[in-house]
Design goal:
Shape: elongated
Number of domains: 1
Order of helices and strands: HEEHHH
Strand content: 5-15%
Number of strands: 2
Radius of gyration: 17 Å
Largest sheet: 2 strands, antiparallel
Helix content: 40-55%
Number of helices: 4
Length: 102
């Protein structure tokens, strides 16, 4: 989730440990570096970056390419869509005015 957020908001400045300021585009890599410095396993962090990149590419990049314009690769199952419609759960993505970090 951090990877996808950082790709969608690359210019937001993040304060890490009240010491470093980094742009959101570099946040996942800074977290991996911190985990390396603290001696933690990097396996799950790197898997998260790979999964986040795959999701970001399929959800945000592929539909905007000229060759695949409008094609949605990741679509939810119809049962989930029907349940969300029944419960009146709609798309809750943030709008431009909802961003509080700018």
């Amino acid at each position: 989730m951090i990877y996808v957020w950082s790709r969608r908001n690359p210019n937001v400045v993040i304060n890490l440990l009240e010491i470093f300021q980094v742009r959101a585009a570099y946040l996942p890599y800074c977290i991996v570096l911190l985990m390396l410095l603290f001696g933690s396993s990097l396996k799950y962090d790197i898997i998260g970056i790979i999964a986040g990149h795959l999701y970001y590419y399929l959800e945000d990049v592929v539909p905007n390419l000229p060759e695949t314009e409008g094609i949605k690769v990741l679509t939810p199952p119809k049962l989930i869509v029907q349940i969300c419609e029944y419960l009146h759960i709609h798309d809750f993505r943030l709008n431009e005015e909802d961003l509080i970090f700018e």
